[in-house]
Every structure is written in structure tokens, then in C-alpha cells.
Amino acid sequence: MAKRSHEDWAALIRQQPASGLTITAFCRQHKFSISTFYARKANKAKIKAIMPFAKATLAPPTAVKPQTQLCDAQQMICLQHQTGVWTFPSSLPANYLLEIIKGLQAC
């Protein structure tokens, strides 16, 4: 039998409650042990707990009006978080950005 991927296990774990079968019957039907099912389910929860909480993207340079030539257009760092989208200049020191991300983890 081919080895199941993480995606296959995630799908099986989601399918079990909807199947109407007990975990024992579901495992028997799909030919794996109950202990494997629970181990994979615990591993899935652990992975979900350590997954990144924010999606970081690099925004394209913004257009600058001719009257405001004093500031050069620069790339921005955008963090998408459950509290909203946070935008910072790309010149922001990395250690400061790290402190912001740590603070957002508490939200």
C-alpha cells in the first residue's frame, strides 16, 4: 500500500465524523490502526498550533505624485493578520519587525 501524505491524513481525519462510523469502524474500513489515527490526529493539531499566524507579502512600489518628489517610492512589507493588514516600510529594522510579530501572536 502506498504511503499516505499529510494531506491524505488530514482529509481522513476530517472525513471520520461525517462518515457516521465509530473511529474503530472507520479505521478498519480504511485499513489502519486506531493508534495511528489518534497519532496522526494529534500530529495534525500540533502542526496547526505552530503554523504561521500571518502571511507576509512584499507590496509593489506606490506611485509618487510629481509635487512630492522629496520621498522616493519604496517597497512596503505587508502582514496579513486576523486583526487586519499591517503595512511597514521595507527599511524597518528586522529586530523591530520581529517584536511587532511577537506582539501580534498574542492577539
From TrEMBL:
Keyword vocabulary terms for this entry: Hydrolase
Keyword Hydrolase: yes
GO molecular function: hydrolase activity
UniProt EC number: 3.4.-.-
Record bears the keyword Hydrolase: yes
Name listed for the protein in its UniProt record: Penicillin-insensitive murein endopeptidase
Organism this protein belongs to: Shewanella benthica
Gene designation: mepA
